[in-house]
Design goal:
The protein is α+β, with helices and mostly antiparallel strands. The protein is built from nine helices and eight strands.
């Protein structure tokens, strides 16, 4: 499957675009590659791009008191970027970096904003996608605030069992809010 087909498939999972809107939107994406452990967006920078992951794994994280808290992972074929900074065009509080070598498609904020003004179906696609992101974020907030470490671990593995082989365990530990030692104990204790 070529990159245009992957992009179209991921967009249409959210909302089907009319032919003209798709043709214009598809022309605005370009391919970029990053090395392992390379910053895509640093805290303090304003996110200029929305990404579609073609290959590799990335994470968004927050630094506080010399500790990192992993917020989200992205891997094929998911969208990625520091979404709040992208849409507000305010400096990001978060970092986006590659965990592995990565290839992504990206669209510039000005291009997407112009297309949303011109095409109702693109604006609808963005709204529906953001609504899903918000719903997922609220569910994640419930998990962070209410679940035990074991419940967070099992929820993660039920939702995305493949991450154990895809993402280093220290980042998964950070994602569920436990130290790596506790994560290892959960790995040995919880039946998968």
């Amino acid at each position: 499957m070529n990159t245009n087909e992957i992009l179209k498939q991921q967009i249409e999972k959210v909302h089907r675009l009319d032919k003209r809107a798709w043709n214009e939107l598809s022309q605005c994406w370009s391919e970029v590659s990053y090395k392992r452990k390379q910053a895509i967006t640093k805290a303090g920078e304003t996110e200029k791009y929305l990404y579609l992951v073609l290959d590799g794994v990335q994470r968004a994280f927050f630094e506080h008191d010399n500790k990192e808290a992993t917020l989200v992972f992205s891997y094929p074929p998911s969208f990625s970027g520091i979404i709040d900074s992208f849409f507000t065009q305010q400096p990001s509080r978060f970092c986006l970096e590659t965990i592995t070598r990565s290839t992504l498609l990206r669209i510039h904020v000005h291009d997407l904003n112009a297309l949303m003004q011109q095409h109702r179906s693109i604006e609808t696609w963005v709204r529906v996608a953001l609504t899903a992101v918000l719903a997922g974020t609220l569910q994640r907030q419930v998990e962070i605030m209410s679940y035990t470490a074991e419940e967070k671990f099992t929820t993660l593995l039920h939702r995305s069992p493949h991450v154990l082989n895809l993402i280093p365990h220290k980042y998964l530990a950070s994602y569920i809010g436990v130290d790596p030692t506790t994560f290892s104990k959960l790995l040995g204790k919880v039946k998968l």
